[in-house]
Amino acid sequence: MIYVALLRGINVGGKNKIDMKLLKKTFERVGMNDVVTYINTGNIIFSNKDVSKVELSSILEEAISNDFGLQIKVLVRSIDDVSGVINAIPNTWKNDKEMSCDVIFLWDEIDDESVLENLVIKPNIDKVKYIPAAIIWSVEKKNITKSGKSKLIGTKVYKQATVRNVNTTRKIYELMQAQNS
């Protein structure tokens, strides 16, 4: 099975620095195969036939703790999970000069549509979709300061999620598909 490990809060603002080449070796050391990293924010595509998603998260969190001395949360999603996210993102939602669009990958503990009740969503500004495993949030950049998305940081939802922009999410899926062929 092809998976992506999404690490929360590494190499952001000079904190929790992890070299991707060393991280790749850590993944290989604990039995992950075909390991590929994508950009410096903790996106690791790999395959594994022997272990469940839940077990993979624990194994990887422990390996990162042992090798880097950091307590990093690791969210593991299968290629099918990411495919569901990709298929739910409207083609017109992009991350570019005019639009900011993010995928908020949710930890299992809060993965339910009711999570939207805990967010500040401005109906005339924010476009927000819940799908199993994620929230997709789009806002025009000219309205970003008025958006409820800026109020996400520090919330319970934010602490149990990891965010990637749609461009990164689409690239992760592309890399996963390349391994699947």
From TrEMBL:
Pfam families reported in the protein's UniProt record: DUF1697 (PF08002)
Residues in the signal sequence: none
Organism from which the protein derives: Ornithinibacillus bavariensis
Top-level division of the source organism's lineage: Bacteria
Designated name of the protein: DUF1697 domain-containing protein
